[in-house]
Design a protein that fits this description.
This protein is of the alpha/beta class and 401 residues long. It has two domains: 163 residues, VC0802-like, CATH 3.30.2130.30; 218 residues, 3-Layer(aba) Sandwich (Rossmann fold), CATH 3.40.50.620. Helices cover 39% and strands 20% of the residues. It contains 14 helices and 15 strands. The strands form two sheets. Strands 1, 2, 3, 4, 5, 6, 7, 8 and 9 form a nine-stranded mixed beta sheet that branches. The longest helix is centred in the C-terminal third of the chain and has 22 residues. It starts with a strand and ends in a 14-residue tail after the last strand. The structure holds adenosine-5'-triphosphate and magnesium ion. The site of magnesium ion (MG) has 3 residues, from loops.
Length: 401
């Protein structure tokens, strides 16, 4: 008898009523994609849990991969046996013995889900607990804070024994909340916003504005590397790279200095919204947080947001910079984000951007420029890449346009 499967618990998803099946099926697909390189595993799913049958695949590696799949509340290595008291006691003992148990404490929690089973929960606890004590040394019982928590569940199809719960990534399975476009700069904030959006079940496509020759190939590679980090949580992600030089230079020439940043941001939002429509998204995600910089006062957001009625989601809106940095470190995007390569805004940033812009004023300044053809060209010349964890350089992959 040995650990032969991983038991997955859903958490929040299990409260989704009629929609639950859709959530569970999507979670299964996401897990299957994540574990594609383990060719022997099999996934069984039911309404309240999932089992990954290892069939000889290494459980440590599989469990490592599961930690980044949204929609999993927790998971445990498990042993399955038949609903027969002798077998259950052996399975529980084996489960404990595969831990470093000497000098540790344990507790047994048995649950009889299958009411046909003749032995009740407290009797099971006693039977299993005493069997473990008889067959081990230097292991004691602690019912309040055990080192090893032996959970035994007698279900219709068999009995499952686990010893440790590993916390999952939480959230909802990516793809169950629909699709959004993530406005991704090379900075610290927007990758974190993308991570949080995926955690709420959104599938994301990234949109990046770049302004060659003012921004370099290295700045573009930086964005590709950031997307690669996000694919760890979301599987393959499309990255749309929008050439923004003409628009930015035109704005820079024609719109007074204090308003040029706001105007560029408006055009970015407008173009992102066009791309959203083209790719059937329902929302836009940004890394804006309130009050952080000039373009992030409520007045600025109001004027920028005027471009669209599409929901603009700002997962970081109430977070402090230190909290954002902490998350960026956790998802491993921080060190890429702080590389010094300029993004298109740092170059054109005016010395004193308006912190309280007026919507009428910016519309008035923009009325002197014919931005529409420039926007059309930018959308038409947008390059799209499909990025996955193995993506190395832009040249190796097919250009989708
Ligand atoms: P970040 O750390 O994400 O760069 P920030 O603190 O620098 O954010 P801003 O420069 O005001 O803040 O940008 C606000 C948001 O606008 C970004 O989080 C991002 O969503 C979007 N954005 C800014 N520049 C670009 C760009 N070049 N391409 C795509 N989106 C952008
Ligand atoms: Mg930035």
């Amino acid at each position: 008898m040995k650990y032969d499967r991983i038991l997955i618990r859903y958490g929040e998803m299990s409260t989704k009523g009629k929609n639950r099946n859709r959530f569970v099926v999507r979670l299964k697909q996401n897990i299957a994609k994540k574990l594609a390189s383990f060719s022997n595993i099999k996934i069984e799913y039911m309404r309240d849990r999932m089992y990954i049958l290892l069939n000889g695949e290494p459980h440590e590696k599989v469990m490592e991969q599961l930690k980044t799949v949204f929609g999993i509340q927790s998971f445990s290595l498990a042993i399955k046996c038949e609903n027969e008291i002798q077998q259950i006691r052996e399975a529980a003992l084996t489960a404990v013995q595969q831990n470093e148990y000497e000098g540790k404490t344990f507790k047994v929690s048995a649950k009889r889900v299958d009411k046909q089973f003749p032995v009740g929960s407290s009797e099971l606890n006693y039977e299993i607990g005493s069997h473990i004590l008889r067959n081990t040394q230097n292991l004691t019982v602690n019912v309040h804070q055990p080192d090893i928590h032996v959970r035994v569940e007698v279900r219709k199809d068999g009995t499952y024994v686990t010893c440790h719960d590993v916390p999952g990534a939480g959230g909802l399975p990516v793809g169950t909340s629909g699709k959004a476009m993530l406005m991704l700069s090379g900075g610290i904030d927007s990758p974190v916003a993308g991570y949080l959006a995926m955690k709420r079940g959104l599938e994301i496509e990234a949109v990046h504005f770049f302004s060659p020759p003012f921004t370099s190939e290295r700045a573009k590679q930086k964005v590709i590397d950031l997307v690669k980090k996000l694919t760890k949580f979301g599987g393959k992600i499309k990255l749309h790279i929008v050439p923004f030089t003409d628009i930015q230079q035109t704005i820079h020439r024609q719109v007074p200095d204090g308003y040029s940043l706001i105007s560029s941001r408006r055009m970015m939002l407008k173009i992102t919204d066009l791309l959203r429509k083209k790719h059937n998204g329902l929302a836009i995600v940004t890394g804006e947080s309130l009050g952080q910089v000039a373009s992030q006062t409520l007045e600025s957001m109001f004027v920028i947001n005027d471009m669209t009625t599409t929901p603009v989601l700002r997962p970081l809106v109430s977070m402090d910079k230190t909290e954002i940095i902490e998350l960026a470190r956790k998802i491993d995007t921080h060190d890429i984000s702080i590389l010094p390569y300029e993004d298109c805004c740092t170059i054109f940033t005016p010395s004193s951007p308006k912190t309280r812009p007026k919507r009428e004023k910016v519309a008035y300044y923009e009325s002197f420029i014919d931005l529409e053809p420039l926007i059309e060209t930018a959308v038409a010349s947008t390059e799209t890449w499909v990025i996955d964890e193995a993506f190395t350089s832009a040249d190796e992959f097919e250009n989708l346009f």
